Amino acid sequence: MLRLPVLLLNQNYEPLTILKLKRAITLLILGKVDMVEKEDGKVIHAVSISYRVPSVIRLRYYIHIKRKEISLTKKNVIKRDNHQCQYCGKKTGLMTADHILPKALGGDDSWENLVCACHECNNKKGNRSLKQAGMFPLKKPKRPNYFTFVLNEFGSPNAKWHPYLFQC
Question: What range(s) does the HNH nuclease domain occupy (predicted)?
Fold first, then answer.
């Protein structure tokens, strides 16, 4: 239970990161955070006190965080697209990164020009444009936000987090 994910918000309710319950309880005990949302009916017991299990906590003070840039790599393109081929929707098998506009036709290495593709679709498209190949991505590729990239590690977010997440 101490490994349950807890959403940490900045003082202005901006999502910062996801903590494990053990760290969230520690921050609550130290008085550094306030509980915003709690898990219904869940309580954690210590020797002399019980705590309601938090789902969302907020820092009592604002911290300025310089967001890290997510490096453009094949692994991160596949991760951004949730290991799903953006042409056929397949989620199994080996995946690669495909240039929407091939380099031979003037395409570049950018978040907006790379999508996750299965080997079959990648070979079918070849060195042609989308129009020439008659293939189109399921969604328009874009640079991932740092927090949504972190959120993908945890799968679908807790329903209590939705009001605090800008993407839901």
Answer: 72-123
Q: Label each residue of the chain as H, E or C.
A: CCCCEEEEECCCCCEEEEEEHHHHHHHHHCCCEEEEEEEEEEEEECCCCEEEEEEEEEECCCCCCCCCCCCCCHHHHHHHCCCCCCCCCCCCCCEEEEECCCHHHCCCCCCCCEEEEEHHHHHHHCCCCHHHHCCCCCCCCCCCCHHHHHHHHHCCCCHHHHHHCCCC
Each residue's pLDDT tens digit, 66-76: 877 889 999 99
Instruction: Give the chain's domain count.
Output: 2
Q: Are 63 and 101 in contact (CB under 8 A)?
A: no
Query: Is 163 domain-assigned?
Result: no
Res. 167 pLDDT band, cuts 50 70 90:
low
- In 3D, which of 125, 115, 112 has the Cα closest to residue 79? 115
